[in-house]
Amino acid sequence: MKRIITMMMLATLAGCGDDTAPATSTAAPERAAVVPSTQVPATDSWIGRWLGPEGLFLDIRANAEGGEGHYVLTIKSDLDGQAEFVGQADGETIRFVRGGAQQTIRPGKGVETGFKWLADKSNCLIIRSGQEGYCR
Description:
single chain, mainly beta, 38% strand, Lipoprotein
């Protein structure tokens, strides 16, 4: 009797599958998870205050509204006052518009600033070589 029941169960299970039909799937194909970039722009290391001679400065802040690689620049480039600009990372520079002209902030040495007070510095940002630069 046990043998008959076992044979019936095997026959029932054998009839459940169809080996001749191709396997098809209606499930969506798996996709790799999109991982947000964790690479920080090199220019983010410039955030903070950079000093020039006689109280001049360049202040770089992250611009949360613009997103990664966007900055708010406060520049006091003369003794008459300071102005604020919006800048954007472009490789190892920050680009911004001042007075209708495209300007670029790039890394450099103190001697490139054009100021003898900064000539011995090695960690500087240059806007106009020989005319405008700031160091830490």
